[in-house]
Write a structure and sequence with these properties.
Elements: E1 4-9, H1 16-24, H2 26-29, E2 33-36, E3 45-51, E4 55-58, E5 65-68, H3 72-81, E6 85-88, H4 91-98, H5 101-126, E7 134-136, H6 144-153, E8 158-159, E9 165-168, E10 171-176, E11 179-180, E12 189-190, H7 192-202, E13 212-216, E14 227-229, E15 239-240, E16 243-244, E17 246-248, H8 252-261, E18 265-267, E19 276-280, E20 283-287, E21 298-305, E22 308-316
Helix pairs in contact: 1-5, 5-6, 7-8
Length: about 325
């Protein structure tokens, strides 16, 4: 069997430029399959305030920046590239929205859905003519509404493996976008017993391990892929002698699934800081990491031959 190449990314969190780089990398890396490992949505709504004399004000950092109306689209694009959503509004209206966090979150999600729809159009425009499949799954920061859009509005070359197995070329991909509970209680966080039940209920579809790839957002516990800063009661990183303390935050259930099914490879995201490769019961496990806020795309090129990983390379651009 000839080489089969996968290009895998995860955790772009709404970054317009990173998603475009992901799609546009296809003719460069020449993959047979693209995989997006979850966390599609952005998290932050960024206000832009109109001012006198056709100017606007926004806060790219701690200090305000005033810019002319002619630069509005450029600033909105900068915000989108950082994975944020922008809103042109008055200070009074913004303060009113801040007092209604649930309403703010609903509004942010609606804007996020519009961006996802625009990404699906890009997939259809750039990848469908090339007959290049994209496996795209949700993550713990995404909502069931995003999953519904992927399943109902995506072009035919986009496959959604959440809780099921999809076929791409000679390989099968099983997906799970849930994660074990985080301190932030994200939309698709589950307590470990609940996550175990979901995997038990859905992973029975996993068949030929020589042709099976796992696409699971949460990394397996106690590997180099699940090291994250240890947090205090105020959700601030703990430090000792100026060094950040790290702890394993992955899922024992995910590790158990890898150990019991022995897939050809297992692909993960979720922990942005833990880019790398490790092994669980002989299965290579990967996390490309993420620095989406900078507009830089981190990805993994995975070469397989006859059900075996023969090469891998982490790429940044």
């Amino acid at each position: 069997m000839s080489r089969f190449r996968i290009f895998f990314v995860s955790d772009l969190h709404g970054s317009e430029v990173c998603f475009r780089k992901f799609v546009n990398a296809a003719p460069v890396y020449k993959p047979d399959l693209l995989i997006y490992g979850g966390d599609i949505m952005g998290k932050i709504l960024q206000p832009i305030f109109p001012r006198e004399k056709r100017t606007y004000l926004w806060y790219p950092g701690d200090k305000p920046v005033v810019f002319p109306a002619a630069s509005l689209r450029e600033v909105e694009r900068t915000i989108a590239d950082q994975g944020r959503y922008s809103l042109v509004t008055t200070p009074e209206e913004w303060e009113r929205r801040r007092k209604d966090p649930e309403g703010m979150e609903r509004y942010c999600r609606e804007i996020g859905k519009d961006r996802v729809r625009s990404w699906l159009r890009l997939v259809e425009e750039r990848l469908l003519p090339r007959k290049l499949p994209l496996v795209m799954n949700v993550g713990n920061d995404d909502t069931d509404g995003i999953l519904e859009i992927l399943r109902k509005e995506a072009p035919p070359n986009l496959l959604v493996p959440e809780g099921q197995v999809v076929t791409a070329g000679p390989y099968e991909i099983y997906g799970c976008g849930y994660a074990n509970m985080t301190p932030w209680h994200c939309p698709r966080d589950l307590e470990e017993p609940e996550l175990q039940r979901f995997l038990d209920r859905t992973s029975g579809q996993i068949g030929r391990s020589k042709r099976m790839i796992l696409d699971i957002h949460a990394p397996p516990a106690n590997t180099s892929l699940d090291l994250a800063p240890e947090l205090d009661a105020n959700l601030k990183p703990k430090t000792v002698a100026g060094q950040m303390m790290m702890t394993h935050v992955g899922s024992p259930s995910v590790r158990g699934l890898i150990e019991s099914t022995h897939p050809v490879a297992s692909l993960h995201g979720h922990i942005h800081e833990s880019m790398g490769v490790d092994s669980v019961a002989g299965t290579p496990v990967f996390n490309p990491g993420s620095v989406y806020f900078s507009g830089t795309l981190q990805g993994l090129i995975l070469d397989l031959n006859d059900g075996t990983v023969v090469d891998h390379m982490f790429v940044t651009g």
